[in-house]
Amino acid sequence: MSAFSPYSHELSTALLAVQRATLLTQKVFHNNAKGTLSKDDASPVTIGDFGAQALIISALRHTFPHDEIVGEEEASSLRSNTGLAEQIFTLVKESKLDDPASEKELGGAIPEMEAMLTAIDAGKSAGGNKGRIWALDPIDGTKGFLRGGQYAVCLALIVDGDVKVGVLSCPNLPIDDSAPITADIGISSSDRGVLFSAVSGQGATSRPLTSSGLATPKRIAMKEISDLSTATFCESVEAAHSSHSDQAQIAQKLGIVQDSVRMDSQAKYG
Q1: Which pLDDT tens digit goes with each residue over 159-182?
Q2: pLDDT digit string (tens) for 65-85?
Q3: Termini Cα distance of the chain
Q4: DSSP H helix total and E strand total for the chain
């Protein structure tokens, strides 16, 4: 994408912010103690959710201070649990890109714990169909994250009700897009981590995740399938998120003979 293309600045910031936040989630993913809390609806929240939200919102507020943000978490539980807050802040401070120019674009490190808590709480926009609004899911597929499966870090910019920019980081998907789609895809591979992005009207791209600046992107598109019997389809691991029986009937009517691949999070769309 040209630097002068519509939303090029927003895309660059979103890609770098999500990539940096993914570094934090990967550290937590490989740690057996993920600091799990429960929301009022009993859904789990990990230190990765809080840390990733803080890093992404801090970058967005630095670059686009007047934009609204819809996040997933709020910091009240951390304000009453200083031990957990300190653990998260340590991870936040350690999670930075190796490329100084990229870090500068994101505003650098969060300087203190109160700034981290304020950033987390800045994701309280009610949304709506007017103005510029960023929608953030710091760890989509938290149960998959906890069980060692697929998860995604997701960010989108909505302008006057229309999605203009989307970024999806899938740390456990293989970089090789020709790899067969299986339930454990990417989990046992060291060559994994993909950053997807799209801008309205400009197509979609993927690139490998890095710990530095952005890797070179390549354009992506749906693969053509001439014989539906050879197709593979994905569905949620959690039955509460989709009707497995209905989807099995749809597959049967379409002539798809392979079993579905059950995958957590929006990684299934990558």
Answers
A1: 999 999 999 999 999 888 777 776
A2: 999 999 999 999 999 999 989
A3: 20
A4: 8, 11
Rounded-to-integer distance, Cα 215 and Cα 207, Å:
6
- One-letter identity of residue 143: K
> Where in the chain does DSSP place strands (E)?
37-38, 44-45, 68-70, 132-140, 152-159, 162-174, 192-199, 204-208, 218-220, 234-235, 261-262
Q: How far does Cα 188 stand from its chain's mean position?
A: 20
Give the total residue count for the chain: 270
Which 3 state secondary structure label does DSSP give 24?
A: helix
Is the confidence at residue 99, as pLDDT, over 80?
Answer: yes
Specify whether the CB–CB gap between 121 and 74 falls below 8 A.
Answer: yes
Q: Report the 10 Å Cβ neighbour count for 154.
A: 24
DSSP state of 215: P
Residue pair 17/59 in contact (Cβ under 8 Å)? The answer is yes
Q: What is the pLDDT of residues 102-143, one digit of tens each?
A: 999 999 999 999 999 999 999 999 999 999 999 999 999 888
The token duo for 241 is 């998120």
DSSP of 59-119, one letter per residue?
HHHHH-TT-EEE-S--THHHHT-HHHHHHHHHHHHH---S-HHHHHHTT----SHHHHHHH
Structure tokens at 177: 């897009």
Tokens found for residue 1: 């994408």
pTM: 0.89
Task: Give me the residue label for tokens 């992404």.
Answer: 56
As annotated, the active-site residues are 49, 142
